[in-house]
Structures are given as C-alpha cells and as structure tokens.
Amino acid sequence: MDFNSSQEIVFVLHGLNVTQTNKHIYFSFTLILYIFTIFVNLILIVTIFLEKMLHDPMYLFLCNLCINGIYGASAFYPKILYDLLFDSHVISYPGCMTQILVIYSYAFCEFTSLTVMAYDRYVAICKPLQYHSIMTTRKVWTLLLLTWLFSWLESSIGMGLTARLPLCGVDIDKLYCSNWAVVKLSCVDTTLNNLYGFILTFSHVSQTILILISYMNIIKASLHSRVQRKKFMQTCLPHLITLTNFTISLTFDVMYARYGSNTSLLALRNIMAVEFLVVPPLVNPIIYGMKLTRVRNRVVQMFNRKVAALI
Asked: Where does the record place the G-protein coupled receptors family 1 profile domain (predicted)?
C-alpha cells in the first residue's frame, strides 16, 4: 500500500508486549527511572551553574553533557510512558519525524561533546601553561554552540532525506521511531539515505580517531609527571568511561537495527535498542559526580545546607 500523504500515516510500534498486570509494573519502573535521570542531571547542572568555582571549561562541557542527557531521555521516556499507561502503540507521522530528529541530534551532540571534552583534556594536560590562553571563555561558548548546530544540521539532513520517501508500510519493530526503521518501509530506492549514513559514520569514526590521538598524547604526557597522572585519573578516567559506555551502546543499536534478526528475543531487541537512550543519561552524571572531587564536594555542601535549613 502506497500512502499518498504523510498526514494520513500513523505508524504502529511493535516493541511492547506486556500483560495487563506487568504493564503497571513497567510503567512505575520506567517513570522512576526517568525522574531519577532528570534528578541526577539537574543536580550537576544546578551545582555547576551556582558555583563560580566550577565555571571552568571542563565543568561547562560537563554541564552541556547533562543538558543533552535530559534532552535525549525526554525524546524517549514520555512516549513509552504514554504507551504503557494508555496501551497505545501508535505514533503520527509528524510525531515520528520529531522523535527521530531529537533522538539523532541527541546522539550526535553526545558524541561531538565527548570529542570536545577530549580536546579540552588534551590541552589541560599536554599544554597546561597555555590552557587558559587556548580555552578562552569565547572559545568554550563557540565550541558549545557549534556542537549543537552541527548535531541539529546532521539530524535535519537525515530527517529530510527520510521525509521525502513514499512509504509502503506503517509497522515499526521498535519501541520508538528510528530513521532506519522508517527508511526500510520505503517503496523506492534508498541509496541516497544509505550514502548519507556512510558519510555520518565516516564523520563520527573520524571523531573517534581524534579522541584516541588525544588520549595517546595525554597518556604519554601523564607518564612523565605524578601531578599529571593524578589529573588524568581524576578528570580523564570519567570521560573515558563515559565515551566507552556511549560508543558501545550506540554501536549495539546501529548494528542491530541494520543487521539484527526480527526473530530474536523481544526483550533482547528492546534492550539493545534503548541502551544508548537510557544508560548514558543516567550513568554519566553519577560517574562524574563521584569521580570529580570539586563537583562531589559542592554537591555534598549544597545537600548539607538544604538539610540544615529544613532542621
């Protein structure tokens, strides 16, 4: 069936398969997870915003990572919560395109942010005397702005290429709308979409190579100084954990979306599809909050002040 207008298309999401009893359990668990994700990210954002001592580039980039975490989580959780609560498994065409735009811009922004953070750590450890002259306030805000603009541009082009395709189906075998899932429903040749996908892959693999080169230089510099080794363990280790976590999560989703089998276990498909939307936004602020001493101390101080005020 070829749909004449995008306005009449309503996609059916086939990722949920829960009983009436389990539905309320899943809803409660998902809601708690969403609230906790927003809470831990907001704690770091508010702490960095209120404390002038944390207005260094590294903490501003961390604040941006937390904002992006909330942005990405909010593209996924509200829809899945609605589906669980009202037993709805459909999404309109405009709603699907919007979800694709937000989810993909979140993923691109996350990866670009991690690349910028790797550059910041490289300058801090390999060129400590030049750090403040290189990482000026203007440069930091320019990098943050370009990170978001670049991510939205990538996502908008991808969504535009998908939106032009006539569709011959409405069934999406996922919990949410993804670009590749919609492209597979097309009635026409999708070579252009595939080509753009390879361009994006090359772009972000290049970012990975830049991160690896940065860390090779950081590790080399850290071996010559005990102070630099300590700085590496405090500031670079959380970044490496975050990068590894996000890269593995995103790779799982991309590989499974393109090459995975629909006959495999539904639970496994769902876990692999949502991991990059659930795990990084939840884990990133916890990792940084525990590992970065200045952030941890400020959070504890703020919490103690609130408790004292209540008493």
From this structure: 40-288
Question: For residue range 8-26, what is the model confidence (pLDDT) as tens digits?
Answer: 788 988 877 665 667 888 8
In the chain, what is the greatest distance between 2 CA atoms, to the nearest angstrom? 67
Strands 90-92 and 171-172, bridge-based pairing: unpaired
Long-range contacts of 151-157 (CB under 8 A, 24+ apart): 151/105, 151/106, 151/108, 151/109, 151/112, 152/105, 154/104, 154/105, 154/108, 154/200, 154/203, 155/100, 155/101, 155/102, 155/104, 155/105, 155/108, 156/101, 157/196
Q: Cα separation of 8 and 17, whole Å?
A: 26
Partner residues linked to 13 by β-bridges:
172
237, two tokens: 């280790």
Decide if 41 contacts 281 (C-beta within 8 A): yes
What is this structure's pTM? 0.88
Neighbours of 207 (CB within 10 A): 17
Q: Which residue has the higher pLDDT, 103 or 253?
A: 103
113-139 pLDDT per residue, tens: 989 998 998 898 888 889 999 999 999
